[in-house]
Amino acid sequence: MEDKKYQLLKKYFGYDDFRYGQKELIDEILSGRDVLGIMPTGAGKSICYQIPALVMDGITVVISPLISLMKDQVDTLLEMGIEAAFINSSLSDLEYRQVIEGLRNNQYKLIYVAPERFEMEGFINILSRLHISLIAVDEAHCVSQWGHDFRPSYTNIANIIQKLPSRPLIAAFTATATPIVRKDIIKLLQLKKPFTITTGFDRENIYFEVVKNENKFDFIHHYLQENKTQSGLIYCSTRKTVDSVYKKLKDKGYKVRKYHAGLSEDERSKSQEDFLYDKATIMVATNAFGMGIDKSNIRFVLHYNMPKNIESYYQEAGRAGRDGLPSNCVLLYSPADTVMNKFLIEQSSDDVDKQGEYKKLYEMVDYCNTEGCLRTYILNYFGDKVLNTICNNCSSCNNEVEEQDITIEAQKIMSCIKRMNERFGTAMVANVLKGSKNSKVTSLGFHTLPTYGIMKEYKIESIKEIIGYLIAENIVFQSGDKYPTLALGQSAYDVLKGHKTITIKRVLVKEKAKKGLKD
Ligand code: ADP
């Protein structure tokens, strides 16, 4: 058996050795035990079920939420000479019938199906007639409401397996598992005393960085100038931001593509292919892009906005450097990202655990604000016990952090908000403080306020940024949908009376000239 697994690894995949975790998981599956493999993106989870599929009699059913990738995965297997097929909504009637025919003739070693398909009555009947040796559940965290990609159909998987004439082995895989998600996977997929392995979450080759208080687009432009030939991803939180960043980069002549759920299926697959096959080096996308993408030479993942939690961040960032070569993950943080995420939590449906989401959001914000080692922060979050608190490969370990007292600025801003009767939004307040001659400002008589122009030496973005920070810290409140207005919270008065000081942290990047708040 020992030889067989190595022979298959060499013959089909061309590798001499297993990576840590692969051999252990394969051995346990082949000994007849359920498994749960918790391995970071790029660790090589697929081989852990593909090799057992080849060794065992019968067929392996792979449940995967990644409809757009099934074809690629199956094509890769076919190229290697492994009989495989997929069933999802993209098949024509004829193709579907052909695959079903192939299943009846025991033609395949692996069949990939979407969880929604797995639930269908007709499909269960077909499966019931097959000899299924293994059910591999990819992206298993989708079963848990605590995970970041909850898919209701995943919760039905265990029921359906019970309907089969005999229970196959179940192998579940995920890149993301906080202890609570881990427990959910075992419980909801009804894994039987699974052999569980966590291969460790550290991605040593990735440099982590948080950048604050910089113009985001300028930073990206500068970064791309310095890394011209490299391939990378830029994640934005909304389709609108994707469109705008994409356009600006395209106008500057970069080879860039975009991807989000608002594009047609054709546009999306074209973009994806161009990026995968290096026709374009940069992909600007929402989180709709990337789950399961097998592109090993992604050198950087830049986050234009802060994601809603650490799981999402680490999964997206983890797409960098799958080949093990040095890669960069930079999160461009601004307090407005916190405001946006809070808004999204408030808008979410009633069955979402809002308190839980807020907790995760604050842990993400803490990551952006921590002065400690970023890697240590992430690893501790996922439950890896990390003793070494200086990794020397993140912006906290490599940079000096400066605390800047912004109490005076905050007082000026807040008294201006008050004098404008708490009826205007960030842009208008910032214009008044800057002393803008904008006709809106003068027509409302704001040029006569004592706070008019008291921050004229500041950049307008800096004023807005401090306002964003005050909102994120719940010192100033923003309300209203279309034209949000600013109002002072309780603690604002403590600051105005001088009972409370406010500081923000700014990273002093070595070798890079420091930019100040002022013009
Ligand atoms: P995951 O599903 O964990 O994100 P994949 O299964 O897509 O990762 O594998 C990531 C990459 O690692 C693929 O290019 C795969 O061919 C490669 N890989 C997997 N196992 C090995 C191995 N034992 N040796 C070398 N490369 C491997």
Structure explained in plain terms:
The protein is α/β, with parallel strands linked by helices and about 525 residues long. It contains 22 helices and 17 strands. Helices cover about 40% and strands about 15% of the residues. Helix 8 links the parallel strand 5 and strand 6. Helix 1 crosses helix 3, helix 2 runs parallel beside helix 3 and helix 18 crosses helix 19. It is elongated, with a radius of gyration of 26 Å. Bound molecules: adenosine-5'-diphosphate (ADP). The site of adenosine-5'-diphosphate (ADP) has 16 residues, from helix 3.
**What low-confidence regions span 5 or more consecutive residues with pLDDT below 50?**
507-515
* Principal-axes shape call: elongated
Number of helices: 22
Q: Find the structural class using helix and strand composition.
A: alpha/beta
Query: Roughly what percent helix?
Result: 40-55%
- Beta content: 15-25%
Distance between the termini: 70 Å
Q: Order of strands in the sheet with the most strands?
A: 3-4-2-5-6-1-7
